[in-house]
Structure formats: structure tokens, C-alpha cells
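Worked example 2:
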Amino acid sequence: MTIPAKFFLLTLMAVGLSACSSTQDDAYMGSRDDIIVKNRNMPEAVKEKAIEDAEKMAREEANRAVQQAAANDPVTTLDEVADEMAQPSLEPMETTQMASAPGTETATMQQESPASVAPAAPANLSGDLPPNARPGECYAKVLIPAVTENRTERVQISEERKVLARIVPAKYDVQTERVLVKEARQYWKQGHGPVEKVDATTGQIMCLVEEPAVYKTIEKRVLVEPERPEYKMIPAQFENITRSYVVTPERMEWRRILCETNVTPSIIIRIQQALQAKGYSVGAIDGRLGAKTMNAMTKFQAANGLAKHGITYETLEYLGVPLAGAGA
């Protein structure tokens, strides 16, 4: 029952007690019916006001009763008070076997004998124990290797690029050119003739001479095509790369293993012989789980992708050492 419902029951009880009370002091106004009978000839507004005052007083008395109960017994809650006062206990009745007449049986009320009750499974207190285990079986949390997958991808390792291949030399042409060294000229030159100047009365001979131009032929190299770089294109380079991707990550799981409860020297000898036959040195085959035997076991498990850190029944199956009940 909810708190509002219980509080409502307490209020109704308080109202009922108020209505049935025989107190005749001035503050008591009577129940709703008493007020209606007593004030039958009064106006309606006055009657309703009297009824409201009576109901208000009843609610205040109910609240005081609840507060008084809480003060007297702080441990008792409102829920408990309402349950005790409003309804009887709803606890189921205990089933007991009744006496029967001789020759009669009460099959429906007969209890099972202790011998027919199966032993209870151990409680999983930690919340992390092997499921569905049976007596005599040993389990251990072993590391399950990750499952990987190799994928080959074509990856570009370099882009297409232009590189300098060579320098093409410049081209020249040899040309011949006639160059003026000395220009042609005319000048007067003293001449000689039949009559030479002897004295002042004799005339002087002057001749106008023309001297031709002087030329020189030279060769020169003329640039026909300048030197230039020559490039070549190197295509993009690709390469096939194999990458390993994790399909299932490694995890810890409960696996059935060999332990001191279910292992014998003869089983260990069979395990040592199987490891030795597969090329894993175990040292002396003595029926003891020594360091060399466990080291060989770990190497065998790693090479075959098996769970490590324990001699699991799966490992025994791979070794070819089956045990009775290994598939269970």
C-alpha cells in the first residue's frame, strides 16, 4: 500500500473518531450529520461554512494523531502504522501436514524426504565462475589468442614526378664576315715629272692619289639554339603490402584444463611423448610437469594458435592425447 493511500485511511479514521466523540466542550461542533440536523433552519451559506469548519478540524486532529504517533515511536513509520490499523497481515499461511485416519494419505501435503533432494550447486559468489561445471572437472581462465586475417593491398608508395634527364647543349653556326679595316681616301701627293721645280719660277708637281679601302675577312660563331634542360616523367610507384587485421581480439575465457584433481603421471608421460614427437623438447620423459615440459607446451600452443597458460583439453586434442570425457 502506498503512503498516500495509508494517509487517507488514517484521515478517515480520525474523522470517524471525531464524529463519534461525545465531548461537549465549546470547541466541539459534532459530525457533518449533527451539524446539518442542528442547523437545519439556518441559511445555506452558514450551513456550508459550518460543515467546512468541521472537516478542517477533523483533518487537523488526524495530522496531530500522526505526529503524536511518530513522536512516541520514531522507529515506526507511517507505512507500518497504516498497515497495522487498516488491514490484517497478509502473510501466507504455513502449510502443515494434518493427521489423517489410518489407511489414508495426504499426498498433496507430504514433504519430500531429504534423500531425494539433489545437492545444491555451489553459489557463484564472485559472479565469474565456469558455467555448467561438474564434480571432478578443473577450469582455468586462459588467454585466447586474437584471430587475425592477412589482407594484401596495392598501395601507392610514390607519386608521378618529372626529373631532369640531361642538358641539351647550345648550337652554334660559323659565319664569315668581311670587315672594313681602312676606308678608301683621296689625298695629294707630290709628283715627279719632266719638269721639276728648280726655283721659285719653276712650278711644283702635285698629283691627286686615291687609296682604296682595306677589308679583312673574319669568322664568328653565331648562336643558333641555346642550351636547354630535358626532363623525363617517372610514373607513380605501387607496391603490394600484406597487412594483418584483428578479426577477434584476444580475451580471457574459462577452459577445462588438467590439474592435480584429474591428472596422473601416465597422462603427463603421454603428453611429453606427444610433444617430443612433434619436435618440442621436454627433456626427460618422467611423468612430471617440469619447466621444460611447460615451456614446450607453451611453444606448441603459440605455434597452433591455442589458448595459453594452461593444459587445456583443446591442446590435448591437438596433441592427439584424448582423455575420457574430454568432449564433455
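Residues 17-29, 74-82, 85-116 have pLDDT under 50 and may be disordered. The chain is about 30% helix and 25% strand.
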